[in-house]
Structures are given as C-alpha cells and as structure tokens.
Amino acid sequence: MASREPSGRPLAIVTGASTGIGYELALQCANNGFDLIIAADEPEIERAASDLRGRGARVETLEADLATEKGVLELCALAAADGRPVAALLANAGRGLGKGFLDQEPADWRQVLDTNLTGTLLLIHKIGRDMRTHNRGRILITGSIAGFIPGAFQAVYNGTKAFLDSFSWALRNELKDTGVSVTCLMPGPTETEFFERGDLMDTAVGQQKKDDPAAVAKVGFDAMMKGEGDVVAGWKNKLQATMAHVTPAAVLAEQHRKMAEPGSGGR
C-alpha cells in the first residue's frame, strides 16, 4: 500500500480500473499528475497498480464488489483516510449482460443494475457531497452510446446506460453554480473484456473490430479536465449517436438485434 503522506499531487479515484477503459483512465490520471485510488472486483487491480506506480503516481488499491454498499463504503473510507479531498472521481465500473431478458437469471441482471446504477450512484453521492462542500472537483461517468438505443438482447445493460447518460446531465445542471463539473463519456464498442464477460462473443458486435480503449480514455479524460458536459468517442459513434436521435425506437431495436442476438456473429 502506498504512503499516505501528502505528495502535493491531486487525488483521483478510478473504479473498474483493473483493465480496459478504466485502466486507461487511471493511466491518463497518472500521466497527468494525479495520485490514485483504484478499485475493481478482481485481483488484477494489483497488477494495474504496479504499472501505474511506474508512472510516478502514488497508488492505493481496493479489491471489492462496488455493486454492494459495503464495497462502496470501503472505497470511501480509503479516500477519507488519505486526508486529501478527492479532485476527480472517474466512475467507470460497469457490467454487461447478453442474451434475451427472459433467458437471463435474475441474479445476473440484478448484478448489472447494482453495479452500473446502485453502486455508481452511491459512490457519486458520497464523493460528490464532499466535492460540493469544498466547491471543487471533477466527476467523469462512463455512460455509452448504447444508452441511445433500445438494446434488444442487451436490454438491461442499455437501459442502465440510458439512465447514466441522462443522470449525468441532470447532476451537472444541479451543480452548475458550484466548482464541481460532471462529464459523461459515451464510448461505442471498445476492445475490452466486456464482451467476453457479458457472454457476447457469439454475436456480431462481439466479433466486430472495436475502438482502442486508450484512445477512448484520452477523449474522456480530456473532456473531464475541460469541464465538458459529454463526449462521444470516435467519429463513427458520433454519427450513430446523431442518427439515434432521429430514428424510430422500433427501428433502432431491430438494428441492435442484428448486432447482439446470440449467434449473429456467424451470419
């Protein structure tokens, strides 16, 4: 565990930081002068911490399930023990789930809801209150362009991202007269372990070429530092997001079905 003596660097919290976009967001923080508290629900978080310390950052880790109140409170306690106000919260932890809703087990879709929504909101609520008290801070929420699309065969996941995309703008408005900014990063399909973990590898979206998580993270980090409201990573995703606003929901759902239906990857 890293020393808690003051370093003169600002402190950032990054969740879901063991791999993928979360790790790359933490790397952006380390490369731009932040010390870090990183959290994930897997032991790979320690490997990520070792890599980040090589960039000159002081890094503390927490292996915990952030879908639970216990995990979120452990993370908040770790931040409080550091003694510095949290300068940036990058709420990236998320979970996906493929297949038809009626074919999923309730425990599985509840885990998606608790990870993507309940745990994320509890963390933002606690850290955000401290930021408001200090009248200073940056919050980056990882949403998705999936939030614009009725997600046939990813119905629960897309629904959670629609919530986060909307929530981030609402919270931003509530904090507009403070020194706290809220930014929503909305990536498209990105080359991470998300698709394997979500049982989506036999789908068209699981097998297609995806965006580079490092590039996605840089876009999100830069937008957060500029205090922008949202950012869609990648020009193709920007086009898709724009078209989603003018395309009937039934058409969008059918298009999503062709990408996410089990077995679609072999068509």
**What strand line-up does the widest sheet have?**
3-2-1-4-5-6-7
What distance separates the N and C termini? 49 Å
Helix-strand pattern: EHEHEHEHEHEHHHEHH
Shape: globular
Low-pLDDT ranges:
none
Secondary-structure content class? alpha/beta
Q: How many helices?
A: 10
The major beta sheet can be summarized as: 7 strands, parallel
Number of domains: 1
Strand portion? 5-15%
Give the averaged pLDDT, no decimals: 91
Radius of gyration equals 18 Å
CATH class: Alpha Beta
How is the quaternary structure best described?
A: single chain
The CATH superfamily turns out to be NAD(P)-binding Rossmann-like Domain
- The proportion of residues forming helix, as a percent range, comes to 40-55%
Number of DSSP-assigned strands: 7
InterPro entries: NAD(P)-bd_dom_sf (IPR036291), Sc_DH/Rdtase_CS (IPR020904), SDR_fam (IPR002347)
Family: Belongs to the short-chain dehydrogenases/reductases (SDR) family.
Pfam family, one: adh_short
Protein name: Oxidoreductase
